[in-house]
Write a structure and sequence with these properties.
Length: 335
């Protein structure tokens, strides 16, 4: 998964092909919330602004900035509250697009390839965790295996191969059925490292996923690993390498535990719908024309992005507070 997504010049996020867009005709593969409606960034800005005040910081860090749409929305809304906006992105091709789009804010912008040893500010990441490589675990006839990739000489292509492993999901999974799932060592390590290096600030991560009780439910026996290409989804990451996105849903319990292990506090965890409504979505909808209102409403609709997408808020170096985005509908107790 790491090679297919990030190999220089060849990986999905390292080549020049278009990725983000509303329709397949653009050559894109999927659409994210900031491209659906600029209301997403404006509403997230309300939470970021509050967090900057609470943490007494003036810098925003964005991981995986994509086309720069979210950065544009945040910078345009926050104005002079932001002195420095740092984008951490592994994709050189996307960086060029971000620089072009964000030219009006060039005096505030910085790009980084890796985290510094020490940092402060408010961190945001929209659909970042789902693209971090996972490990596949397969239970067959009661025995656990790690599922890896081999080259099949006979078939002249990549194939799956299972090997015995001591790795286990974080929960015992009931039932005798064969069971395929993922564990998220890299994503959790990322959050742990972020917590260790963030001296004072807050973190808001938005992605599709569940708490571990739902993630490792006995009925979720096929796992969550999927691919996206031309706005269609498939479950075979071994073909068309570098030409399609590979993602897995996020185990938000693992993210919360990793954050706490690194000294961070959990401010809240809720659905994207609740988070955006808490930040003022309904009031914004009232002021919109019909077309933009219909697009913005997708951000909260249960059958669109409202329920599957979750938001987790974290803080470090300050007293935890009742953060705006989680005042109603907080699900931290379900992690």
């Amino acid at each position: 998964m790491a090679l297919a997504l990030y190999s220089p010049g060849l990986g999905y996020y390292a080549n020049e092909r278009p990725k983000f867009g509303a329709m397949p005709a653009s050559g894109s593969d999927f659409v994210t919330a900031p491209e659906i409606s600029p209301a997403f960034g404006r509403l997230l800005a309300a939470q970021v602004s509050e967090a900057m005040e609470r943490t007494d910081t003036r810098e925003v860090w964005e991981f995986g900035a994509g086309t720069g749409a979210l950065a544009e929305q945040l910078l345009g809304t926050l104005g002079d509250k932001v002195e420095r906006y740092t984008i951490v992105d592994l994709s050189g091709s996307l960086r060029a697009r971000q620089q072009e789009r964000l030219a009006p804010f060039a005096h505030k912008l910085h790009w980084a390839d890796a985290l510094p040893d020490s940092m402060q500010g408010v961190v945001v990441g929209n659909e970042v965790l789902d693209a971090m490589p996972v490990q596949l675990l397969m239970r067959k006839k009661g025995e656990w295996f790690e599922r890896g990739v081999v080259w099949d000489d006979a078939g002249a292509g990549f194939a799956w191969e299972d090997r015995p492993t001591a790795l286990r999901p974080p929960l015992d999974i009931d039932g005798p059925q064969d069971y395929l799932t993922e564990i998220h060592a890299q994503g959790e390590a990322f959050v742990r490292t972020l917590g260790e290096r963030l001296q004072r600030g807050a973190v808001f991560l938005i992605d599709y996923g569940f708490g571990e009780g739902e993630y490792y439910h006995p009925q979720r026996h096929m796992g969550t690993l999927v691919c996206h290409r031309a706005h269609r989804m498939d479950d075979n990451p071994l073909v068309d390498l570098g030409l399609k996105d590979i993602t897995a849903h996020v185990n938000f319990t693992g993210i919360a535990v990793a954050a706490q292990e690194a000294g961070m506090d959990v401010l809240g965890y809720t659905t994207q719908a609740h988070f955006l409504i808490n930040c003022g979505l309904l009031q914004q909808l009232e002021r919109m024309e019909q077309g933009p209102r219909a697009m913005a409403a997708k951000l909260m609709m249960e059958h669109e992005m409202g329920e599957l997408f979750k938001v987790i808020g974290l803080s470090r170096g300050v007293e935890p507070w009742s953060a705006l985005g989680f005042v109603q509908g907080d699900r931290t107790h379900r992690l």
